[in-house]
Amino acid sequence: MKNMNKTQKIAFSGVVMAIYIVVMYLTQSFAFGQYQIRIATAIYSVAYLFAFLVVPLGLSNLLANMVMGGLGFFDIVGGGIVGLLTAGCCALIRKLKLNEWFLVIPITLIPGLGVSAWLSYLLHIPYWTMAASLLVGQFISGVCGVLLVKALKRIWMREETKEEAHVGQD
């Protein structure tokens, strides 16, 4: 998976976008509640492994908000921007060679504080009340994101070891 060509990156991006939207659809019963536990936002962490996923992940959030009844323009476009920023920060954490546990910070804070800006206005709820509610759910997603990255790294390291062993036999 290290040396993907352009076609493979596009295909992989499409698969990740589809997974994001399906996870969002399957978890919407608790993703839009008082504590918005949006497990799909854990998928932003995959940009830590594949920086080219930043834009597809932002688009995934935009599409999910559009398809699943977001609260209009601000929620749809704002969600896309929050997705870009969050996934971008996840990729930056890798570039800075920081530990995977730093992924909890952008996955928790950017959606938790950013989305609260327009949701508090649209729903007529005080900003800090909304932010506190979102931050709780996003923290759970942040921890899930770290666990996802750790699992994927373990899987891909195992696959790369198998490929190297196979090449050595040729």
Q: Could you give the topology of this structure?
A:
Layout: H1 6-26, H2 28-31, H3 54-67, H4 73-95, H5 104-123, H6 127-169
Put the structure in a nutshell:
The protein is mostly helical and 170 residues long. The chain is 74% helix and 0% strand. It has six helices and no strands.
Instruction: Tell how many strands the DSSP assignment holds.
Output: 0
Structural class: mainly alpha
Our measurement of the CA-to-CA distance between the termini, rounded to an integer number of angstroms, reads: 20 Å
Average predicted local confidence, pLDDT: 90
The geometry reads as elongated
Q: How would you describe this structure in keywords?
A:
170 residues; mainly alpha; 6 helices
